[in-house]
Amino acid sequence: MSQYKRWKGKFDASSLTGTFQDIGDTIDFPSLKMTVTNTSDVGVLITDGSEEDDFEIPGGGSLSIGEVTGDITSRNKYVFTANTQLKVKQVTASGTGNIIIHCFG
Description:
Elements: E1 6-12, E2 21-22, E3 33-38, E4 44-47, E5 55-57, E6 62-65, E7 87-90, E8 98-104
Antiparallel strand pairs: 1-8, 2-7, 3-6, 3-8, 4-5, 4-7
């Protein structure tokens, strides 16, 4: 039986600005699943630096993508590739609370 690799990023909402800021270190493995919990009172945008649209998570909201079922070794799609740097910025203003992200691979 294998174990998921795990990465956690946490960002204090009082430090949010209108410019994207790094959330922790890069994720050094391909991510099969990601969950975001925004315990803050403001909405945020999260980017992975790709050309795809940003993830928008409202204050008090959450997001979960990439639920894996079956044989994960045969899977060829990832939420994020290895060495992805996630970044966050405010939608309206800085706030109170945290943005917490977990990635699994």
